[in-house]
Structure formats: structure tokens, C-alpha cells
């Protein structure tokens, strides 16, 4: 019987997909399910973007493209980065990839091996740790703390770095907490990096456009002193409600771009051509739909945070970005995963237990507010009823 090599015993999963499947199965049985589990906008992709893909198909864009993406799209990404961060990214250093996750996969595969450390946020996106373990590198969690408003702490990250540190992963605005790291922390982090010239940085900025209440997104792209070791991860999934299209981009330092291109040639050849044309329309077309989505998320943010804070034993900070609330449920007496399971099975409300995002996630749940206001209100009511009658 064929068996995968041992590294696959170490690969993890993203429980949000298992919850999505279970929620779908319950809905198929006729149960009323409200999904606050998966992290994807509940809006359709804006119509002009869809039309660009249809047009690309009609215009005959059916073949392979360059492995790193069509030149016009890489140029549009560079122009967008310049406008948003002031950083001059060369189109030749940009790769168009099938989703932001692929940048994570590529970067960690490229830099991870036994004997080196890779630092990652905890709680954080579960795939970081899973991929680090896959490569045999040692995963070193950087604590992300509620008392710090879930911002990344430069001092804590730098204190964990040694000459074994090969890669540091940072993420702001963050999943699962919605935390946004302020400029002062990022300045301090970049300044401290001068002591570790061999360490690469993977900055996951997939939620860079989803910010509220004046919160500022500070891109690591805007620090030229680390340009020779920065990998930027961003994409279309969250900003343009395009999770199912599978489209993202990376900016690589000169020393890594060739490896990134070669992995693309070996593994996926290119992102499908019409999707790349859709991505081009997204970047170069009107941005009103993005603004409208962010305004809708902002209204829901208040609804969800106020509603959670009114629940017994629950307290929730106001997140500055992304579309997640990460309330503490410690005072409720519940263990996070048990609560998430019981809520789904007994009330039909899908959300994710904090431990799915790391050891520091115990005592928290992640509530995605990429759902309508009516659904959020109904879900909060069901959770309240559940908490008031269950131990
Ligand atoms: N990075 C973070 C922090 C995410 O939360 C996600 C998706 O949930 C991704 C990256 C991957 O996004 P994509 O759908 O573009 O692969």
C-alpha cells in the first residue's frame, strides 16, 4: 500500500474548512445554520471583475501565461503598491500565485529545514505552523496578546530571534484576532532586525485594505532597509471577495525570486489566464465596491462586538481590521473547542475555537463577521440562549 513520506505526518489542517463542511452537512439535513466560521467575504465578486474574466475567455485567453503571471498584471500590482505604500516594487520581483496561501507555502518550503527556527504569530493563521513543521524547521511562536490589543510586539519577537532564525512571519491586520500592529511597533521591529541580517521576513498583508476607524496599515514594503529579505504576501481573496478564484501575489527579494519562479514552473505552471485578467480589472477599475464592503464590515463589527460583550462571561476587544472578533470566553467556564462544537451541533452557529489558531488561543473563539447583520443578530441570540441554559 502506498504511504506518504513522513513529512506528511507533520502537516496540519485548517479547521475552518472542516467546520465549513460540517455546517454544510447540517444545512443539507434541513438545519438552520449560520456560518460565522469561515473567513471569506459574504459578498459576490464585483460584476466588472466577473465580466473581465468572461471577456478574457471570449477573447481567447485560454493558454498558459508566463509562470510568474501576465506582465500587465505584475505591472498593475507594482503600481498599486507604489500608490498604497510608497514602495517601488519591480514587476520582475512579483509573482502571481493561486491564492495568498501559495506564497506562504512557497516561502516556508524555500527557507525551512531541520536545524533552523521559523517564528510565527500565536494565535495566528494555522497554516504557518503546519508548513513549518512539514519542512522540519522548528516552529517558534511569537505570543500575540489581548492586553496588547492583539498587536504584534517587536520586543517579544526580537527577544525570540537568534542566529538560528531563518524566517519571521508577521501578519497585520491579523487573523484570527483582527489586531492591527501600529507603526511604532513596526519601526522598532525593523530597527531590531539589523542585528539579525540573515533572517528573512514574510509579511502577510492579505487584510491590508480591510481597516476600520482610522486604523493605519503600515506595510513592511515601506522599509527599504529590509527590501533584500522581505517577502510580501497579499492578494485579491479578501479585498475583492474573490476567495474561490484563487488569486494572490508575492513580492520576493532578489535572492529568492528565481526559486519562486522555478517552484511555480514545477508545480502549477501559472494561475489560470481569465482569473489573472479579472485581477487586472480589480486593480485598475473602480474601487467603490471595496469601500462599500469595508463600510458594511465596519457596521457589523460594532454589532458583533457589542453583542458579544453583552453575553455572560464573554468579553471582546474592538478589532482594528480584517473581519474577525476574538472574544475571551474564559469567564464563561467553557473550553473554546467544546463550546464551538456544541454551538454548531445544538444551535447551528458555526464559529472556530481559538486553539485552532495556536496554544495561546485557548480561552477564545473566533467569530467571523463576514455575514449579514440579520444573521449576526440571530446568531448572537442563539448563543445567548445556549449560554444561559448550558453549564
Ligand atoms: N493569510 C491569512 C492571514 C489568511 O487569513 C488567509 C485566508 O484566510 C490567507 C493568508 C490566504 O488567503 P488566500 O485565500 O488568498 O489563499
From TrEMBL:
What are the protein's GO molecular function terms?
L-aspartate:2-oxoglutarate aminotransferase activity; pyridoxal phosphate binding
UniProt entry tagged with the keyword Zinc: no
What Gene3D superfamilies does this protein map onto? Aspartate Aminotransferase, domain 1, Type I PLP-dependent aspartate aminotransferase-like (Major domain)
GO BP annotations of the record are: amino acid metabolic process
Needs which cofactor?
A: pyridoxal 5'-phosphate
Q: What is catalyzed by this enzyme?
A: L-aspartate + 2-oxoglutarate = oxaloacetate + L-glutamate
Q: Which residues form the Aminotransferase class I/classII large domain?
A: 32-383
Q: State the UniProt keywords alphabetically.
A: Aminotransferase, Pyridoxal phosphate, Transferase
Q: Can you tell which superkingdom this protein's organism belongs to? A: Bacteria
Give the E.C. number(s). Answer: 2.6.1.1
Q: Which family does it belong to?
A: Belongs to the class-I pyridoxal-phosphate-dependent aminotransferase family.
Name of the protein this chain belongs to: aspartate transaminase
Amino acid at each position: 500500500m502506498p504511504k506518504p513520506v513522513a513529512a506528511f505526518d507533520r502537516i496540519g489542517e485548517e479547521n475552518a474548512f472542516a467546520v465549513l463542511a460540517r455546517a454544510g452537512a447540517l444545512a443539507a439535513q434541513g438545519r438552520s445554520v449560520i456560518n460565522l466560521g469561515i473567513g471569506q467575504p459574504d459578498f459576490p465578486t464585483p460584476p466588472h471583475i466577473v465580466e473581465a474574466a468572461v471577456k478574457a475567455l471570449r477573447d481567447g485567453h485560454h493558454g498558459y501565461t508566463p509562470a510568474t503571471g501576465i506582465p500587465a498584471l505584475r505591472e498593475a500590482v507594482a503600481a498599486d503598491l507604489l500608490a498604497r505604500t510608497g514602495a517601488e516594487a519591480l514587476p520582475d520581483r512579483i509573482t502571481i500565485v493561486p491564492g495568498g496561501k501559495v506564497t506562504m507555502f512557497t516561502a516556508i518550503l524555500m527557507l525551512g529545514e531541520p536545524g533552523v527556527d521559523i517564528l510565527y504569530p500565536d494565535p495566528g493563521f494555522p497554516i504557518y505552523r503546519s508548513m513549518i513543521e512539514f519542512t522540519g524547521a522548528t516552529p517558534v511562536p511569537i505570543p500575540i496578546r489581548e492586553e496588547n490589543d492583539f498587536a504584534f510586539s517587536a520586543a517579544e519577537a526580537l527577544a525570540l530571534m537568534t542566529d538560528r532564525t531563518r524566517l519571521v512571519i508577521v501578519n497585520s491586520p491579523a487573523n484570527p484576532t483582527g489586531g492591527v500592529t501600529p507603526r511604532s511597533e513596526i519601526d522598532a521591529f525593523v530597527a531590531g532586525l539589523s542585528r539579525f541580517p540573515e533572517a528573512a521576513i514574510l509579511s502577510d498583508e492579505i487584510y491590508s485594505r480591510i481597516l476600520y476607524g482610522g486604523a493605519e496599515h503600515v506595510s513592511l514594503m515601506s522599509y527599504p532597509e529590509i527590501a533584500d529579505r522581505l517577502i510580501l504576501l497579499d492578494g485579491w481573496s479578501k479585498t475583492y471577495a474573490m476567495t474561490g478564484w484563487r488569486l494572490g501575489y508575492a513580492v520576493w527579494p532578489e535572492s529568492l525570486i528565481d526559486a519562486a519562479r522555478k517552484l511555480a514552473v514545477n508545480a502549477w505552471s501559472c494561475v489560470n489566464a481569465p482569473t489573472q485578467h479579472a485581477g487586472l480589472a480589480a486593480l485598475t477599475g473602480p474601487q467603490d465596491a471595496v469601500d462599500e464592503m469595508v463600510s458594511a464590515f465596519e457596521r457589523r463589527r460594532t454589532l458583533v462586538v457589542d453583542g458579544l460583550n453583552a453575553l455572560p462571561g464573554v468579553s471582546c476587544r474592538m478589532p482594528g481590521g480584517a473581519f474577525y472578533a476574538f472574544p475571551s470566553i474564559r469567564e464563561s467556564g467553557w473550553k473554546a473547542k467544546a463550546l464551538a462544537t456544541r454551538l454548531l451541533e445544538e444551535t447551528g452557529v458555526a464559529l472556530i475555537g481559538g486553539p485552532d489558531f495556536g496554544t495561546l488561543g485557548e480561552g477564545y473563539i473566533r467569530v467571523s463577521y463576514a455575514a449579514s447583520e440579520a444573521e449576526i443578530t440571530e446568531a448572537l441570540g442563539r448563543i445567548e440562549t445556549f449560554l444561559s441554559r448550558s453549564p
